[in-house]
Amino acid sequence: MSVTQQARAETGQAAPREGVRDLTFIGVCCAVLIVVTTFNALNVIQERSLSVHPVRAWEPFVWEGSSGVFILAVLPLIMALARRFWPLDRPRAPRIAAHVVFAILFSLGHIVTIGLMRWAIYHLAGGHYDALWPLHDWAYEMRKDVLVYTLILSIYVGWNLVLSKPAAASGDGEGVLEVRDGARRHFVPLSEVVWVEAAGNYVELHRGASGLLHRASLADMQRRLEGAGFVRIHRSRLVRRDAIDAIESKPTGDFLVRLRDGRELAGSRRYRRPLLAD
Description:
- This protein has a five-stranded antiparallel β-sheet. Strands 8-9-10 form a three-stranded antiparallel β-sheet, with no helix packed on it.
- By secondary structure, the protein is an alpha+beta fold.
- It is elongated.
- It is built from seven helices and ten strands.
- Helix 4 (92-124) packs across helix 5 (138-169).
- It has helices spanning 5-11, 14-49, 58-84, 92-124, 138-169, 218-225, 272-276, and strands spanning 176-181, 184-189, 195-199, 202-207, 210-214, 230-234, 237-240, 244-249, 255-259, 264-267.
- Helices cover 53% and strands 19% of the residues.
- It folds into two domains: 5-168, no CATH class; 193-276, CATH 2.40.50.1020.
């Protein structure tokens, strides 16, 4: 699957909105890092002023600032990895394993980079800093780095889930569903989706005469589309209400849904009441 020019034209501002969302996330992270690194540096200055090894006022800002700069520099990469290996998609185990590897690489890159940055700044200031010093206690630093990577990943996933809900839940013609396939995306107007059917670890979005596979469970899709006019008629099937032309009951309590385009879908008696509810 790929995001074609036709799909982008149909979805209007969907892709630009996503870009703005990512830029806003980076901006928020930048603000948070500035506040955190500043307070950490001030705390170090205060603690060292009471010890027998005081530091020059600028040194803690270099220590904390170098970490902040590195995190901001690799933040777009972490976001790209999150999109490529979306941790909520199935199968989850290999995606989580990939992020464990990325977290370790993130830590190694962080330690090497801040060592070189601090060495360069100290050198310009006429001082000395061992560029390899952070590597001496990598186990300690790695625990912190893995936590930072996990927090960024988790917040970015939550950020996208929260901000994408309004579009996914919209019942009008402007509602858009983002279909993920690894690093590729397809933006599907909800007005085109007639019914959704479970297909193993995927669901198939039926629109017109074509179907589109999306890596998600039917339960996830039901939650995302509950406000977009979709109703469950079977344990493996959702259908858009306004696409239904008639409902034919059977003696067993099951029923048959006839769509406006003439196609028919089997429904289970378990889901009869929600379908007939206003």
